Hints:
Elements: H1 7-29, H2 49-58, H3 67-70, H4 74-90, H5 95-108, H6 112-124, H7 129-136, H8 146-161, H9 166-176, H10 178-201
Helix pairs in contact: 5-6, 5-8, 5-10, 8-9, 8-10, 9-10
Amino acid sequence: MSSKSTPLASLALGALLATATLPALAADAAAPAPRFAPLTLDALNVYQKPLGEQVMKVSSIGLGGPYNPLLRSPVMGQRMFDLLYYLRWNSSVPLRLNEFAILIIGRQWRSQVEWFAHGPLAIKAGLPAEVVADLKAQRRPANMKPDEAVVYDFVTELTTNHGVSDATFARAKTLLGEQQVVDLTTIAGTYVTVAMLLAMAEEGVPAGKEPPFKVGEP
């Protein structure tokens, strides 16, 4: 037999390979089940319930997302909730920039839950939709305001270079001030922790909701 495949044989082989990849593609398309069983408020024990009740007052995703694993360690979860509460609602960083920093981390981690929760909040807080779209497409956003540009550069340098250049630090200190620089750094680091919790627990967006990042997208 010739070592060269006939056109018919090539077609048959192509069909076989295509069929063989279907289960893999289907598996990729299906979001994994969370590694921690979802919790309801009624199911929480005496240690978890106070935290669960606080979460339900502020969370757009209920007891899902990072709260699902955090409730497994309620004392630590309460400390984390208190920190997140400060960073979300009482930080010295203006809400528009606060949400932008969270989105930068969410995009770096390709965090479905962080982007799902904070994308709309960032736009509502005044971050231009085109800035959000550029960030989602992994482009340095165009037409940023000076304070948005310094947040982008500061957070990106800190998380990718593990440091901030003197020039970027000077810009941040001038535009934001010392307290905001400290709070901004803590926002970035804390939301890396949140992204890690979400990734470890394989938490997805709420049931029936479309994930922001589609299969095959970077």
